[in-house]
């Protein structure tokens, strides 16, 4: 065994050992997190890995960056074949380097791939350092990794070229043969030394890259496939419930990194820091300091700061270490204003290429603020008080729904009626005069179609959605438990809602409390009635519309087509899409309980969204949510366009096109 061979073996073993120790250290930190079952449905999980890792599905949703990453990923994947051959030959010289036809095929594939990878490196450098894309951080870490990638590719190309120069008949390669024929003129000794230098540059570059990964944000290259495999397969609109039955619990929500689940902590290492989440965040894009990316990055830094302390015995901790552990995540590590700025629209989660879950962490920290620290905005206190005392955020009486049932001539469960279709009015349609018109239009359409419909009347209370997403899980569970008892007693065939927040809560979250129902949003149900011929739009309206996708109807529940199908069924209606629509829609600003909070920082989100709608040139903006209706209407008014542009629920537009009821 030569000294060169021995040195190669030692360097490889040391690098692998170093990398293994670093990965073990990171895994021990991840294991600090709370238990969570993400090992179910392996078939679906592997399908996701194939689609997102090998198919680069989410990555490709941005054209320039997507093509760059695809070239980089598949380039490295193919280059890895050469890398395996390189290390096998270096460790075990008896294993020959492929020659002849096989060598030609492999080296030709490598040469083509090398060009694509180098182009991708230049694209990445241009995007980060020349174009200076705002969401990307310009630091030495990213530059170093790009440099290492280029070095590895050039070193392997150099090895190929020197091998050809020393033995032109071994194989043929598009680049290696051309460069090798030039190097051949420098003589055997020069080529031999060049080959040895290239081998060591390649080895040290590859092993250095391997060892550096755990220190860098590029550790995501190793972690991302695991994070995608363990992604959330539950309903997107479902939040985990807190257990209030354990009297020994003194802290609720996410107060420390140890309160996060192991998957939450894995998210922090999977984060690409690409900034896509922040670039689509409505709060950030309207001048708030909230950055979903920074929250994930900050959690990783905090994990690495206090994680080793948590893994030590409590008795051995110094006062300084104990002081670090007592700093809460919410308000201590992450500013309160950032947590309260979130609309829980889930745009960040939708675009994340590695399936990080931002919203559940933010809500978890809100829970700690409200339930453990007793900290919350003043407006939230008023809303909670109204929900506790009157069962609705407005703090108004319970007889309004009974009055609605009487006025509309429909059944009232609180007075002993039993309708087949139970219309869950929601608080907005009950207490807000504008939203009440949507309820009237919807019920009018249902009656026109001959639907046996009724309401809970005085028995209905707020679903608790806003309380839950504002962090008051205890209040939410109190309301949810009471509502489930009421609904189970009513036992309707279908529950119909006009509010996506009520729809999401009853459909996706009430099952945790024993409430299993068939729940439909009025967009779904009215579309079914039209398809069945029970409703037929006949009046031509001659309107140009744009439709605003509600976050809790669209991103959380994948209902995009039903409202559009209804609008396009109306004669004369022309539908124009906003630039940000469907799963890329921009929040109205009311989600996550923000409906009840003042917006004091930056531009108002609803004003920004209203401007996006106005840019289409539409004369009517259609919505499918009472909160969106209020926010978009206020946004249009703030821009001085209320005389020229109407904001209406799609059901009102449909009602205008349906023949009137003949009494």
UniProtKB/TrEMBL annotation:
Gene3D superfamilies noted in UniProt: Alpha-helical ferredoxin, Transmembrane di-heme cytochromes, Chain C
Keywords tagged on the record: 4Fe-4S, Iron, Iron-sulfur, Membrane, Metal-binding, Oxidoreductase, Transmembrane, Transmembrane helix
GO CC list: plasma membrane
GO MF annotations in UniProt: 4 iron, 4 sulfur cluster binding; metal ion binding; oxidoreductase activity
Keyword Oxidoreductase: yes
4Fe-4S ferredoxin-type domain ranges (all copies): 262-293, 333-362
Protein name: 4Fe-4S ferredoxin
